[in-house]
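Q: Hi! Curious about what Transposase IS4-like domain-containing protein looks like structurally. Here's the sequence.
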Amino acid sequence: MTDGGYAGKLVAWVDTHCHIALDIVRKPKGQRGFAVLPHRWVIERTLSWLVRCRRLDHDYERLPAHSEPFIKWAMIGLMTRRLAPTPGLRPWQSTRES
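A: Let's find out. The predicted structure is below.
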């Protein structure tokens, strides 16, 4: 899934070389201004979680193969904290007594 900026030859190239069907997410006709597009916010949200990690805040690595392990470590840490959170109040819980 990608946005409209990557439409064109990229779709055919990915289909030919990677054998993956690439979907282009486009804005609805007549839309003005910002609106959340389906499924795209999931990608944007995940990227914002990743850049919270200090090492991933800037592109320090020369090759994507060097960045990949750091991305995997960041996601492992994120999922570990979600599966086994620290004891205490959860972010979605209210601080007020009911």
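A: A fun detail: Residues 2-27+34-70 form one domain.
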